[in-house]
Amino acid sequence: MLLINITDTGVGIDENKLGNIFKPFVRIKGMRSNLAGTGVGLTITEKLVTAMGGKIGVSSVLGVGSTFSVELPGGTVN
């Protein structure tokens, strides 16, 4: 498996809301609502990763940031 971790130092996501972030058109209330977007980016990413036989996950700490992990089968990095 190829593992890719993407970490940010943003505002983080409340643990109770993590289960919703891969649902289409979900925007977490109270999270920088002035940012553009419709709430489909993570949904599309999850569907692509799953279609390639992989998995995507997230861990987050409110006030600290989030880490998204993508696991994809096979492949090598050059």
Summarize the structure.
By secondary structure, the protein is of the alpha+beta class.
How is the CATH topology named?
Heat Shock Protein 90
Task: Find the count of extended strands (DSSP E, 2+ residues).
Answer: 3
Helix content: 10-25%
- Percent of residues in beta strands: 25-35%
What is the level-2 CATH architecture name?
Answer: 2-Layer Sandwich
Number of domains: 1
Strand order of the largest sheet: 1-3-2
State the CATH superfamily name.
Histidine kinase-like ATPase, C-terminal domain
Distance between the termini: 15 Å
Structure description:
The chain is of the alpha+beta class. 14% of the residues lie in helices and 27% in strands. It has a 3-stranded antiparallel sheet. It is globular, with a radius of gyration of 13 Å. The mean pLDDT is 86.
Note the topology:
Elements (H helix, E strand, L loop, with lengths): L1 E6 L33 H11 L3 E7 L3 E8 L6
Name the features:
Heat Shock Protein 90; alpha+beta; 78 residues; 3-stranded antiparallel sheet; 3 strands; 1 helix; 14% helix
